[in-house]
Write a structure and sequence with these properties.
paralog of FGE (formylglycine-generating enzyme); 3 domains; 4-stranded mixed β-sheet
Length: 744
């Protein structure tokens, strides 16, 4: 026991001797630039960390014209002084920690990190870590290839050894200290203060060899990226104004939270080493430029989590009540949805280890899913409304491939330029999981409804649509794959839908799910919820793409997204709208409404017309009962098998002399339940005291167009009416085509 204590004591002494701050000359320079009692030291054993006092004050944080995540510019008040290390943590300092604590970094445990093989591009490479960053370093260089986890571990160790609170700076503290009382977004003479792509010559350099900022801080621009405490958000909307950290993002899974990096690095452009530029990475992200500096003091408590004022996606089966199939619209942009009924199915297959075991999943709730993947036009509406910058645009590159050449990074590949021509009816590509999640938040806020990504089990259930084979139908008729796509995307809904009316569930482009990927289904949820427990951020994709062979498009294919492939040219998503208590959202009564809609014959070119048409309808419950109806329809392009679709408002009126007789005959024919519901209305639509009273039935009415003869066919409609406490009644229609084909 005594030998163990002695060995540990010797180890700590050795660590203390190693934990020096650069050279004596550098230390003297640091002290010379911090006159007037602004210099503080923290001892760990016999060694010191050099801190500079940062005075309290206020400043304007962010940029008025930069990337979306740098806006809006807002005032922040730092209410008290704090102390920040004059330099980034060095290789020598970090080595002392590693040898004393026996710590292994994320890069060492994973045996890989990100590399910058070409300026502006990055990819993962094996064998990189803080000891071997890919270039030669001295002990006075900033330590790099460190994750947020690694930086936190260092802070905890120094805190324990020193008895003081050592932590990462908040993002507001970092920018306040970097600006040093100035208002410019960067140094006027960048070469004087920063090591960056313009002068670094492909490597880091010893700390404190460039000029400090006015407050005596070195390398706040360039040399190494610096981790902050904050969880990254795609903008400063709702950010705290007191300098505290944003400690969470309740809109996404914790394993997917990304943390802020500031200051740029030796490989960064002049824009990236600016004082307002923000980068981000998951807690285990590391590359050849990621390092850190620390702050002394307990500082601020974490701010209350806020996510741009956007509502958070609810759990499966919760949300706002909407009868199935009602389209979603934001301005001029429309999203067609398909109602997916509750049910159970066998998930997985025996084809691949990642898809085993086959297991029963019961989805005990209805939900709605996008009839198609989100299109380029729909995604553009989101970008234009929010000013959002996608992951690929922020990085300046994306993953692509050409013919049979394997994946490689290419400059300026993003949703605007995926590497091939696209129109607005193509699926949006080069969309990351984070981009898709942000889109769902925006759409939720715009509509007041719960919009989210599907879980993996919801996706497979909807894809199978009651089928049990590898595909939901003949693959070549339903999906775009390597051998029929021409190595590019195609407009949505050109192939046949699955039996539930969903298009492109097989192929075209991979679809993001909310889940994290797992090898196999052992331990997976059996209730339709997303499988979110994971140690690493590896999101799940389903469906296959135009670049893949046919077997990758199988319903059960369970695909992961390896690090480095998170914004490639064959990734996109479709949305889910959650329903609140969907199986009891409408009070159903057995009233049959038979409607015949008549309108002039149209040309095929007129199918997309927005001109309203008026048709007559007769509502019946075993007879006409004197009820008259008027339906106003706005034709829209249909994605259903039956062709053209209209969404009318059907007003049914009862003339006064026959009102009571109509009510009594309906009650006689259909039972007293409907009569009691009608009596509960504050102003009953069948009241004999009213001259005319109307109530509205909202339904989606399909009209079938015979393309060959430019003629309209009549269809039958069965409607279940639920009478509410107001005038309006909700309707859930089911439809049948003249040919007997199913309409989802």
């Amino acid at each position: 026991m005594k030998k163990g204590h002695t060995a540990r004591r010797l180890c700590l002494i050795a660590a203390a001797l190693l934990l020096t701050n650069a050279t004596d000359a550098a230390r003297a320079a640091i002290r010379a630039n911090c006159p007037g009692g602004r210099f503080t030291t923290v001892k760990v054993g016999a060694v010191m960390l050099e801190f500079v006092r940062i005075p309290a004050g206020r400043f304007l944080m962010g940029s008025a014209s930069g990337d979306r995540d740098e806006r809006p510019r807002h005032e922040v008040t730092i209410a008290h002084d704090f102390h920040m290390t004059a330099t980034e943590v060095t290789v020598q300092q970090f080595r002392a920690f590693v040898e004393a604590a026996g710590y292994k970094t994320d890069a060492e445990r994973g045996n890989w990190a990100w590399l910058c093989p070409v300026v502006g591009l990055a990819g993962p490479d094996r064998g990189l870590n803080w000891r071997k960053p890919g270039f030669a370093q001295s002990s006075e260089d900033p330590v790099v290839v460190l994750s947020h986890n690694d930086a936190i571990a260092f802070c905890q160790w120094v805190s324990e050894q020193s008895g003081q609170v050592i932590r990462l700076p908040t993002e507001a503290e970092w920018e306040y200290a970097a600006r040093a009382g100035g208002e410019c977004d960067g140094a006027a003479q960048l070469d004087v203060v920063a090591w960056y792509e313009g002068d670094a010559e492909g490597t880091t350099h010893p700390v404190a060899t460039k000029a400090p900022n006015p407050w005596g801080l070195y390398d706040m621009q360039g040399n190494a990226w610096e981790w902050c405490l904050d969880v990254w958000h795609p903008g400063y909307d709702g950010a705290p104004a007191d300098g505290s950290a944003r400690s969470s993002d309740p809109g996404i899974l914790e394993v997917a939270w990304r943390y802020v990096l500031r200051g740029g690095c030796w490989a960064g452009s002049d824009r990236q080493v600016g004082l307002v530029y923000r980068y981000r990475g998951t807690r285990d992200f590391r590359d050849c430029g990621t390092g850190f500096r620390v702050v002394l003091g307990a500082g601020y408590p974490a701010a209350d989590p806020m996510v741009q004022g956007w509502p958070q996606p609810a759990a499966a089966g919760t949300g706002t009540c909407h009868p199935g199939g009602i389209p979603l619209a934001v301005g001029e942009v429309r999203f067609d949805l398909v109602h997916i009924p509750a049910g159970e199915f066998l998930m997985g297959s025996e084809e691949d280890g990642e898809e085993r075991p086959v297991h029963k999943v019961r989805i005990g709730y209805d939900f709605e899913m996008g009839r198609t993947e989100v299109t380029r036009g729909q995604f553009r509406a989101f970008i234009e409304a929010t000013g959002y910058t996608t992951e690929a645009e922020k990085e300046g590159w994306g993953w692509t491939r050409s013919q049979w050449k394997d994946w490689y990074p290419e400059v300026d590949i993003n949703w605007r330029n995926p590497g091939f021509a696209q129109e607005d009816d193509h699926p949006a590509t080069c969309v990351s999981w984070y981009d898709a999640m942000t889109f769902c938040r925006w759409l939720s806020a715009e509509t007041g409804q719960t919009i989210r990504l599907p879980s993996g089990s919801e996706w497979e259930y909807a894809c199978r649509a009651g089928t049990t084979g590898d595909y939901a139908g003949p693959l070549n008729e339903m999906g775009w794959h390597r051998y029929n796509s021409g190595q590019r995307t195609h407009p949505v809904a050109q192939k046949k839908p699955n039996p539930w009316g969903l298009y492109d569930m097989h192929g075209n482009v991979w679809e993001w799910c909310r889940d994290m990927w797992h090898y196999g289904h052992e331990g997976a949820p059996a209730d339709g919820s997303a499988w979110i427990t994971a140690n690493l951020f590896i999101p799940l994709m389903r469906g296959g793409s135009f670049t893949n062979p046919q077997w990758w498009l199988r319903s059960a294919r369970n695909m992961r997204n390896d690090p480095g492939c998170r914004h490639s040219y064959n990734q996109r998503f479709r949305i889910v709208r959650a329903l609140k208590d969907p199986r009891r959202s409408v009070t159903r009564t057995p009233v049959s409404v038979a409607a015949t809609l008549r309108s002039p014959v149209h040309r095929v070119a007129g199918l997309g017309s927005s001109k309203s048409e008026e048709s007559t309808a007769v509502a019946s419950s075993g007879g006409t009962h004197g009820l008259e109806g008027t339906a106003r329809q706005t034709p829209t392009r249909s994605l259903g098998q039956c062709g053209h679709r209209s969404t009318p408002r059907l007003d049914i009126r009862a003339p006064r002399p026959h009102a009571r007789a109509n009510r009594e005959s309906i009650v006689s024919a259909r039972g007293p339940a409907l009569g009691r519901q009608l009596d509960r209305l504050q102003s009953p639509p069948f009241s004999p005291t009213m001259e005319r009273r109307s109530f509205s039935v909202h339904a989606s009415v399909l009209r079938h167009w015979d393309v060959n003869f430019f003629a309209q066919r009549s269809i039958s409609i069965a409607i279940s009416v639920g009478v509410s406490a107001g005038d309006e009644s909700r309707v859930e229609p089911s439809f049948g085509c003249p040919s007997g084909d199913r309409i989802a």
